Amino acid sequence: MRVVRLRGRTRLVEQGDVVSDLLHAPGPTHDLFDVLAAALAACEPGPSTAFLGFAAGGIVAPLRAAGYDGTVHAVDISAAGWKIFEPIARDWPGRVSFHAQDARSWLLARRSPLDAILEDLSVPGRGGHVKPGLSFGELPRLAHRKLAARGVVVTNLLPPEDRSFGAALRAVAAPAKSAVVVTGEEWENRVVVAGRRTLDGRAFGRALREKLEAIGSEEAGRIRVARVS
Questions:
Q1: Using an 8 Å Cβ cutoff, are 224 and 185 in contact?
Q2: How many CB atoms lie within 10 A of CB 114?
Q3: What is the per-residue pLDDT across 79-105, written as a single tens digit (0 to 9) for each?
Q4: C-alpha dist (Å) from residue 186 to 14, 125, 219, 224
């Protein structure tokens, strides 16, 4: 993992992939991290959210800028990213608690329901980072079982190595009542929002763009939203 210090932000880079882009104050990153944060905020979650795969918390700054002030449970098997995040975000991140644990074990031990879960797990692959196999099987089912009645799971779906994007989308969305997918002009990933409630693609698209515009993100005009069929 390589740490790159830039003006106003700190990046974590591995195998050429930016795995975290930590701003030094709340605001937009003008990239995928804004979309993940705005997707969470657009769902208007309650006071308890979990980040599965925290790295250095690059989503926290745009999430706070988008108006979410609930507790973030930061879950990561490695504390390396947290050690970078903590001194940089000492004064502004709100309530963020770190759990040095793998995502599956943490969810299994969790007793109180979660209002939203961000699934941002990745492992090194042949050509860059990919999702672990767990992300297409047990983890989506387990995550949805841990949600509150109107809860959502937002997944950062990386280009898969061993299946099509369509198959990956269906696997991630399978436990949900409904799901939408967000695509962008300048990144290959898909952002999947899967809920225990009905999600209307058009209404969610409007809410997502409004959140992105509110934080001043350039991604507001670069995204497309569709239902997952």
A1: no
A2: 21
A3: 999 999 999 999 999 999 999 999 999
A4: 19, 21, 9, 12
Q: Which amino acid is at 4?
A: V
> In 41-122, at which residue ranges do the beta strands (DSSP E only) sit?
48-52, 71-76, 96-100, 114-119
Give the count of domains, the chain.
1
| Relative orientation angle of helices 32-42 and 201-214, to the nearest 10 degrees | 120
Which tokens hold the place of 53? 């795969």
- Both structure tokens of 223: 């995204």
The domain containing residue 88 runs over which residues?
A: 2-227
3-state SS, residue 75: strand
Alpha-carbon Rg for the chain in angstroms: 16
DSSP label at residue 45: -
Q: Could you tell me how far CA 137 lies from the centroid of its own chain?
A: 18
CATH number of the domain residue 221 falls in: 3.40.50.150
Place of tokens 């990213």: 81
Structure tokens at 73: 């449970």
Go through the chain and tell me how many residues it has: 229
Q: Tokens 């061993």 label which residue?
A: 162
Residue 203: pLDDT over 80 = yes
Quick check: pTM over 0.90? yes
How many Cβ atoms are within 10 Å of 132's Cβ, its own excluded?
Answer: 16
Tokens 């003006």 belong to residue: 7
pLDDT > 80? residue 229: no
CA atoms within 13 A on the CB side of 30: 3
C-alpha to C-alpha distance for 22 and 12, rounded to whole angstroms: 8
Q: What is the DSSP letter of 179?
A: E
Minimal CA–CA distance to 37: which of 51, 48, 25, 24? 51
